[in-house]
Design goal:
The complex is a heterodimer of chains A (about 210) and B (about 575).
Chain A (H helix, E strand, L loop, with lengths): L15 H29 L7 H4 L2 H26 L3 H31 L2 H10 L11 H33 L9 H26 L1
Helix pairs in contact in A: 1-6, 1-7, 3-4, 3-7, 4-6, 6-7
Chain B lengths: L7 H6 L4 H31 L9 H4 L9 H37 L7 H20 L29 H29 L12 H32 L18 H35 L6 H14 L15 H13 L1 H15 L8 H24 L1 H7 L3 H31 L5 H27 L19 H30 L60
Helix pairs in contact in B: 2-4, 2-5, 2-16, 4-6, 4-7, 4-14, 5-6, 6-7, 7-8, 7-9, 8-9, 8-11, 8-12, 8-14, 9-11, 11-12, 12-14, 12-15, 14-15, 15-16
Classes of the chains: A mainly alpha (about 210), B mainly alpha (about 575).
Chain lengths: ~210, ~575
């Protein structure tokens, strides 16, 4: 009677940290789902939902979407670089990723400022949906509330991601990572891809449909 | 592990040791249990002796009203009673304290998977407690919209005046963040840190219960977090998610949306609180009947089934909101379906005790108490789940009696059973068993009197949140009963003081408990007290299931530890 004792692990070789990040992302996805479903629920109950093509700036946001997808691509390149022990490449692609995130936030802030300051054209578009005033605010009906809650919640995620990746960049600069030790970069990458993926849903539901 | 000296701060305050964090949660939970209990007794004073000055403390607390609890204060009391008991007493006691204490010990792990996250989880909870209590300093008082905080009551437009509701929302968001950190930690710990040989079906049922609780926490706390953030935006920056027809703009937000979000979380929440109790008492009944848990696998699978079903039944809280009859019936069907797996492990508990050699120790008495109160709570749940009965019973004292049987009585008894059982592991001493018996019988008799008769009140039409029942002529025949319920609820409070005395006195008494006083088989009893940081000197190897009692092939004793191999 000399059986070897083991524990069956359905998650294979994934590190514990990665497992925890997946769990966190699942929880985050549910939070986004609740906010998006809430928005859809409110939309079905009102006639005063803005026409995205009139109120929102779709070409600008499409460019923003492109930026975020590209930053996901550079994140993959960063991970690929460290797997080859290429610290220089890692730092280059990490900074490009961070740049993508910062640009996204900049454009989002510009978009918000544009809405908050308002103009006659925007006022007309809002008038068509039954909303008053020349500026589009979070108090502009359930439409405004949903728009700002959803996009700013996502924006906070991008901001978190930028800070997160900056820490990783700082650590790479100090030489913490190598081709034998890049688990944290992979985990940060998971978060960044998630933020990108969720944006596709937010973009589709808020801007396109 | 214990080689280097630790300062007072890193050992007792900012500790990353799961056993110390468990004790921190224990004291936090105990504080709020007594706080919420005191509120309950004040509520009962108003219902039993309406608008009479509160004896002893009334003139000191509310001198302006001549010691009488005024309607505003009354609303704040039942709101804070519910909030505190559910989120600040039961949650830290069962999930915070016992989740932390027994998960790593029972699965043979040195600590949680993320000790620092564990530390943050407690201190976030502590911060949430301070935020919640800070609302007592406001001139307008605390939140008063009920523990459910439905808009428009919780909205600034036409709702409760002052900042109380906003602070309530912020405190709950922080509490939710703490729960989510805990959930990530518990799930990864159970998945990753099990000792060699500890298969899922060799885990003690306590770990099963806490594991399933963590999964529900991970899935549903994010939902309420999203809802609370929307509520907070409504309360602070003037969005209108939940404001119906605000300023007659013709663009309604929807209060019902909040109810949906609240109950999508709120119903699983009751299972979040009761699942650890189910697990713990399944184990304890086996220990004190000296028999393997009857139908161990069935119990584990039935608990999983309840976990899955609990996600699909939130609508039964909303029968009276005018939902479509088809939807209502679907919710009713799914809710009633839960009685099948529940009945399975209920019968398993009886099966465990059947022909066992039962030891009536304090933890066993409380475990048997759970069977009784949970049985009554479960059976009365059928009335509330059935649409036709619920439309009459909704928002009456019947509902109050029902959920106090399942949540207050079952969960409190489960917590007490756990405290009596694991006290020797936490503090090295056994709780006094004579005081324990007084505590049990006093609590058992008074708690049943209180909550059973609340259901009687509700059946007679007593609404759950009215301030002064003597103002309604149809409630006059119930005056005597209301008074008796109040008397027994004060008794219930007195018997908890016995418990507190027992706890403090036993903690400092000289006589040490033996290492394994209950002759239990699970891994947490295999090391000396105090359990060192890191728990196990060497990783234990798990050879047996968790309930190896009275094996016929072992002659000299009636139990076999999970890490022991038979040498015959």
């Amino acid at each position: 009677m000399n059986q070897t004792l083991t524990v069956k692990d359905p998650f294979g070789t994934a590190t514990t940290g990665k497992l925890a990040m997946w769990l966190f992302l699942a929880m985050d996805a549910i939070t986004f789902a609740a906010i998006l479903m809430g928005g859809i629920y409110l939309r079905l109950r009102t006639d005063m939902w803005g026409d995205a093509g009139q109120v929102l700036n779709i070409p600008l946001t499409s460019f923003n979407t492109f930026l975020l997808i590209m930053s996901s691509f550079t994140m993959v390149m960063a991970l690929d670089a460290i797997k080859k022990n290429d610290i220089k490449g890692l730092k280059l692609f990490l900074s490009l990723t961070i740049l993508g995130g910062v640009s996204f936030l900049g454009i989002q802030i510009y978009e918000y400022a544009h809405f908050i300051i308002g103009n006659a054209e925007l006022g007309q578009a809002l008038q068509a949906t039954g909303l008053k005033g020349d500026s589009f605010l979070w108090t502009s009906g359930t439409y405004g509330a949903t728009f700002y809650a959803t996009t700013s919640f996502h924006g906070l995620h991008v901001l978190t991601g930028v800070i997160y990746l900056s820490v990783i960049f700082y650590q790479s600069n100090k030489g913490m990572y190598s081709s034998a030790n890049y688990d944290r970069i992979e985990i940060a990458g998971l978060f960044w891809h998630f933020v990108d993926l969720v944006w596709i849903l937010v973009f589709t539901i808020i801007y396109l449909i | 592990m214990s080689g280097h000296q630790k300062s007072f701060w890193t050992k007792y305050i900012f500790s990353t040791d799961h056993k110390m964090i468990a004790k921190q949660f224990l004291w936090l939970g105990m504080f709020f249990l007594f706080f919420g209990g005191a509120l309950a007794m004040l509520i009962r004073w108003q219902l039993g002796y309406p608008e009479q000055p509160v004896p002893l403390i009334g003139n000191w607390m509310w001198p302006g009203d001549g010691g009488i609890i005024n309607p505003d204060i009354y609303n704040q009391m039942f709101t804070m009673h519910g909030t505190i008991m559910i989120f600040w007493a039961i949650t830290p006691l069962l999930i915070g304290a016992f989740g932390n204490f027994i998960i790593p010990l029972q699965i043979g792990a040195g600590d949680m998977a993320f000790p620092k996250l564990n530390l943050f989880s407690f201190w976030t909870m502590f911060l949430a407690s301070l935020i919640l209590l800070s609302s007592y300093l406001l001139p307008t008082g605390t939140a008063a919209g009920g523990w459910t905080s439905y808009p428009p009551l919780s909205s600034p437009a036409g709702g409760i005046p002052g900042l109380g509701q906003t602070i309530w929302t912020v405190a709950l968001i922080f509490m939710g963040v703490s729960s989510m950190m805990g959930a990530i930690n518990y799930i990864t710990t159970v998945v990753r840190m099990r000792a060699p040989g500890m298969d899922y079906f060799k885990m003690p049922l306590s770990v099963w219960g806490l594991f399933l609780t963590s999964i529900l926490n991970a899935v549903f706390v994010p939902v309420i977090a999203a809802g609370l953030v929307m509520l907070l935006l409504d309360q602070t920056i003037g969005t209108e998610f939940f404001l119906a027809g605000r300023l007659a703009s013709g663009d309604p937000g929807d209060p019902l949306l909040f109810q949906h979000v609240f109950w999508i979380f709120g119903h699983p929440e009751v299972y979040i609180l009761i699942l650890p109790v189910w697990g713990i008492i399944s184990d304890l009944l086996s220990v004190f009947s000296r028999k393997p848990a009857f139908g161990y696998r069935v119990t584990a699978i039935a608990m999983c089934t309840v976990t899955a079903l609990s996600t699909l039944v939130w609508g039964h809280h909303m029968y009276t909101t005018g939902m479509s009859p088809l939807l209502g019936k679907s919710f009713m069907f799914l809710t009633l379906l839960i009685s099948i797996p529940s009945a399975m492990f209920f019968l398993n508990w009886l099966g465990t005790m059947w022909k066992g050699s039962i030891h009536f120790t304090s933890p066993m008495l409380f475990s048997i108490g759970v069977i009784w109160v949970f049985g009554l709570g479960g059976l009365t749940g059928l009335y509330n789940a059935t649409i036709t009965a619920d439309i009459y019973l909704h928002d009456t004292m019947f509902v109050v009696g029902h959920f106090h049987y399942t949540l207050a009585a079952s969960v409190m008894f489960g917590s007490f059973a756990a405290i009596y059982f694991w006290f020797p592991r936490m503090f090295g001493r056994k709780l006094d068993s004579r005081l324990g018996k007084i505590h049990f019988w006093g609590t058992f008799i008074s708690i049943n009197f209180v909550f059973f008769n609340m259901m009687v009140l509700g059946y007679a039409g007593h609404h759950r949140r009215i301030y002064n029942p003597s103002e309604y002529s149809f409630l006059e025949p119930l005056t005597g009963l209301n008074e008796w319920i109040s008397i027994f609820s004060f008794l219930l409070g007195v018997f908890q003081v016995v418990f507190l005395i027992n706890m403090v006195w036993s903690m400092f008494k000289k006589e040490r408990s033996p290492q394994n006083p209950w002759k239990a088989t699970t891994l947490e009893w295999t090391m000396d007290y105090p359990i060192p940081h890191g728990n196990f000197e060497e990783t234990p190897l798990v050879h047996n299931g968790p309930h190896e009692y009275s094996r016929p092939d072992i002659k000299d004793r009636d139990w076999l530890g999970q890490n022991e191999r038979i040498t015959v």
